[in-house]
Amino acid sequence: MELISKTLFWVANSLLIPDIIMLLFLFGRSLLLIGGFYNQYMTKRKNDHRLNNAIKELDISLIDQLKELLPDKDNSLFIHYLRDLLSNKPSEEYSDFLLSNFENAANKDMALSKILAKMGPILGLIGTLIAMSPALVGLSTGDISGMAYNMQVVFATTVVGLVISIVGLITQQVKQRWYAKDVNHLEYVSRILLQKNH
């Protein structure tokens, strides 16, 4: 039994360094995500300012005017799929195909946020529990400096894991609202185009 316990303890302790490396990697990815998210926010704000009223007041006679309002380059998923929708011959089948592809692309864009939201707390908790064991051993043997070091690791892994999770959760929630609105706009434009076709 003692051999099994020591083996288990050794395996658990050996996971601390990979856990910390993963936390640092995900923390770096969360910083990059914040930068990309800010860029997406500014682009979406500009696109919404340009297109929201045009889509809201859209009818069959204003389709060409909406095309002219599109930015020169596809600066977001929404613009890319809206341009595709407006450029091809309207059909219910193609519209459904396009909307499904848009939803898949939106889910792919949100994948990193979902991973960070889930993995941050898990890796933080793993690091906390692994480092807590030697800290308690140091407390029982009177090794205060060793215990203090391990407690630093305990708190650091917890905090970094939670920060990663916060970034993931916030970006995921905001992007979900963005893409829900974009899907609604694409469906509306699609219905107007189908009216034109009939």
Q: What report would you give on this structure?
A:
The chain is an all-alpha fold and 198 residues long. The chain has helices at residues 2-14, 16-56, 63-69, 77-87, 92-141, 144-197. The chain has one domain (16-197). The chain has six helices and no strands. Helix 2 (16-56) runs parallel beside helix 6, helix 4 (77-87) packs antiparallel against helix 5 (92-141) and helix 4 (77-87) packs parallel to helix 6.
User: Number of helical segments?
Assistant: 6
Ends apart, CA distance between termini: 78 Å
Mean pLDDT: 86
The main sheet comes to: none
Instruction: Give the beta-strand count.
Output: 0
Radius of gyration: 25 Å
Give the overall silhouette.
elongated
Spans with pLDDT under 50 lasting ≥5 residues?
A: none
How many domains? The number is 1
Strand proportion, as a percent range, falls in under 5%
Helix and strand composition category: mainly alpha
- The share of residues in helices is over 70%
Please render the helix and strand layout as text.
Blueprint: H1 2-14, H2 16-56, H3 63-69, H4 77-87, H5 92-141, H6 144-197
Helix pairs in contact: 2-5, 2-6, 4-5, 4-6, 5-6
Explain briefly what this protein structure is.
With 198 residues, the chain is an all-alpha fold. The chain contains six helices and no strands.
Structural features:
198 residues; mainly alpha; 0% strand; elongated
